[in-house]
Amino acid sequence: MDITGLGTLVLLLLISCMAIYSTWRTMYRKRNLPPGPMPLPLIGNLLQIKRGEMVKSIIKVGNHYGPVYTLYFGSRPVIILSGYQAVKEALIDKGEEFSGRGRMVTVDKIFDGFGVVFSNGDRWKQLRRFSLMTLRNFGMGKRSIEERIQEEAQCLQVELSKYKETPTDPRNILVQAVSNVICSVVFGNRFEYEDLKFLQLLTLFNETFQLMSSTWGQLQEIIPFIMNCIPGPHQKINPIIKRLLEFVSERVKRNKETIDLSSPRDYIDCFIIKMQQENQNPMSEFHMKNLLLTVLNLFFAGTETVSSTLRHGILILLKYPHIQENLHKEIDLVVGRNRGPNIEDRSKMPYMDAVIHEIQRFSDIIPMNVPHSVIKDTTFRGYNIPKGTDVYPLLCSVLRDPTQFTTPDKFNPGHFLDNSGCFKKSDAFLPFSTGKRICLGEGLARMELFLFFTTILQNFTLCSKTQFTESDIAPKMTGFVNVPIPYQVSFVPR
């Protein structure tokens, strides 16, 4: 090809690109979606997302466009809601319209709209109603959920005593203790802390969350059509989840072989009984696939969030020993040293309640929330949001809303205390989200945090040779889950 022909080809390519971009731009502007940066064909707003800092980048965009704005993940528009007022208007005032579950590309291949967390429509309603009722019934059963948590808190206390004040990373032991609570409810039994299979299982959980929050996981969420074809660590997510499903499947098989229909032992037994009761109902969502994926949902949700909050909390108390000292005084006054704490003690311990609330607010475990979607064409603040559009109500923007908290970026238990030292509620305290998709394990998690924190501080003083800074304790706001920095702590008997 001569120079003239090459020049003509280049010119045609440039004209074609300009025509494609012009058409894309016109289509984009006609949709009356909330404002946002101009997306590019194929990659959307990828250039606005700084590598490895998805949450910070999204918040930065919001500082320019306001509390309701649009970002494009590839060619897919995603609506971002920022701040308490916008999130409240969507999830509470328009709760039905925003009650759908949005896409999570990193796990969609496995869950595919099944299980209580990632389902929609009647499937979600059936599974959520059943799960709430079953958890509530276990709270009133022969061994209540409170008793299961108390038992595990005492096992944890015994295990921590074995460290004999040796500095240790508390991550594994806390994950095991928290996971044992959900295991007790779902599988009917806890695991010993030395159980190698249990430890391997929890390692897989942790690896999944790390991969989802990594730069690779973030890129897969934004441009899946490209990342699904590229080798990298993100390709390990689905194989890991399949291994976890194999474990759940083994437990379900064991339950089926030993079940007593008149005396269910755990969540799996209750689900199997429900499957048998509805096996002639063609509209029933109680079948094996939903059982396996719902159990995995409960396992995920009931392990990582609470254990990460405990780890954040211990790190924060190492930074602020005077807060720890005040907690010791309140525990000694209300609970004493001769019995373990119970949930009734919480109403008499406003300082502990306030500190735990502030730990949850400040640590901000799931900063972006799990994505929602609108279940029908919706008008919101004058903008059109088509049915099926994904929506991210940013929990981090609510928990750090300066109109709701006086020092949003500082750890301050006073956010939840009035002038008399009594506990004070905040409407913007939404670590479990809100509305129809609020975390179904909220009650369980709140009970765990109180009983675990109180038991630990009743028996130990937390110490470290490291002098931690405010930067050390601040959540890193990188991806799907906020996890604290690695650290070591000594549990000194009181």
Strand content: 5-15%
Distance between the termini: 85 Å
Number of domains: 1
CATH level 1 class label:
Mainly Alpha
- Could you say which overall geometry the principal axes of the C-alpha atoms support? globular
Biggest sheet overview: 5 strands, mixed
Which percent bin holds the helix content? 40-55%
Question: Mean of the pLDDT scores?
Answer: 90
CATH topology: Cytochrome p450
Within the largest sheet, what's the order of strands?
1-2-7-4-3
Helix count, per DSSP?
18
Detail the poorly predicted runs.
none
Proper CATH architecture: Orthogonal Bundle
CATH superfamily: Cytochrome P450
Query: Which H/E pattern describes the elements?
Result: HHEEHEHHHHHHHHHHHHEEEEHHEHE
Radius of gyration: 24 Å
Q: Structural class, from helix and strand content? A: alpha+beta
Describe the structure.
The chain has 494 residues and is α+β, with helices and mostly antiparallel strands. The protein has a single domain (31-493), classed as Cytochrome P450 (Cytochrome p450, Orthogonal Bundle). It is built from 18 helices and nine strands. The protein has a five-stranded mixed β-sheet, sandwiched between helices. A two-stranded antiparallel ribbon has the order 5-6. Strands 8-9 form a two-stranded antiparallel sheet. The model has no long low-confidence stretch (mean pLDDT 90). GO terms for molecular function: arachidonate epoxygenase activity; heme binding; iron ion binding; oxidoreductase activity, acting on paired donors, with incorporation or reduction of molecular oxygen, reduced flavin or flavoprotein as one donor, and incorporation of one atom of oxygen. InterPro entries: Cyt_P450, Cyt_P450_CS, Cyt_P450_E_grp-I, Cyt_P450_E_grp-I_CYP2A-like, Cyt_P450_sf, Cytochrome_P450_fam2.
